[in-house]
Specification:
Length: 293
């Protein structure tokens, strides 16, 4: 597959594939035998790191080492953000329902808009303010009705994912404004490495069965390494609103897979709150797309 000659239609197709691959995490983790918490995160990040170490030199050659050396502070901050996303997502999905984690993650674009306004002076359009209010109401509805049944720690860990994604985007944008572009491919590699190093001491004692390791290898390679590389290339062809809209398919795919493959039926409050969040994001991105046209 020649990613350098990617057309718009093919980029859309591969983004749909990316969101589907991302969405399998919930249903796969529900079929683990003994691996739990940080051990799950460690093995998933380890297999992702191994896959990237094999694939990226083939894709970027010697340029990979050059990008790592020239990345500077922004590259390391981006890598740290990726490590938070990789680690927090997996821990959260083991603490609270898949649907709740995925809907919470969908807040990333709105958190990004707020942080960009605070730190780099981006203007927030009225439509985006409206989306922030509506999405906030959806999250309050989703968590408020189940506050006694959900783990507060799980909710807070899940919130780390969109916050880290927002910080990552703002750092990359700020760096580009100052003439130093951040290559997200080595940033993902650094994120996987940091996640492995941080979670290794927390993963002991290892309890994963051979069955668990196969599933975690599937997550590390198929659910993480492959789509993370694909999305970087797709983002070079697609506009930001298109990537954001197509990325929402992960929420839909993930909820349906967890429901069908693990019997994890989302509560009515999650569906209603999630509908508000997704509706707010879709409306905001479509209006933004229309304005750009």
């Amino acid at each position: 597959m020649n990613m350098s000659a990617l057309t718009h239609g093919r980029a859309v197709f591969w983004m749909v594939v990316v969101t589907f691959l991302w969405s399998i995490a919930g249903v796969v983790t529900r079929h683990l035998d003994q691996a739990r918490s940080f051990e799950v995160t460690f093995w998933r990040s380890f297999f992702m790191l191994a896959a990237l170490c094999l694939a990226l030199p083939l894709l970027q050659g010697r340029a990979l080492l050059g990008n790592l050396r020239k990345g500077g502070r922004a590259l390391w901050i981006s890598g740290l953000c990726w490590s938070v996303m990789l680690t927090a997502f997996m821990v959260a999905i083991l603490l609270i329902p898949v649907a709740s984690v995925l809907v919470t993650m969908a807040l990333g674009p709105l958190f990004t808009a707020l942080l960009a306004r605070i730190f780099i002076g981006h203007h927030i359009a009225p439509r985006t303010w409206g989306a922030i209010v509506m999405a906030g109401a959806g999250i309050a509805w989703m968590y408020g009705s189940e506050v006694s049944a959900l783990s507060l720690v799980g909710v807070l860990v899940a919130l780390c994912v969109p916050v880290a994604a927002a910080v990552n985007w703002v750092v990359v944008q700020s760096s580009q404004r100052h003439g130093q572009a951040v290559d997200l491919v080595p940033a993902v590699l650094l994120g996987a490495l940091i996640s492995v190093l941080v979670t290794l001491p927390l993963a002991f004692p290892f309890e994963a069965t051979a069955h668990d390791l196969w599933l975690l290898a599937l997550l590390g390679v198929v659910q993480l390494a492959i789509p993370c590389v694909l999305v970087v290339y797709c983002a070079r062809v697609l506009k930001a609103p298109e990537v954001a809209l197509l990325g929402l398919l992960e929420v839909i795919f993930g909820i349906l897979l967890a429901w069908a493959g693990a019997g994890e039926r989302p509560a009515p409050a999650v569906l209603m709150g999630g509908a508000l969040v997704i509706g707010a994001l879709v409306a905001n991105e479509l209006l933004g797309w229309k304005e750009q046209q």
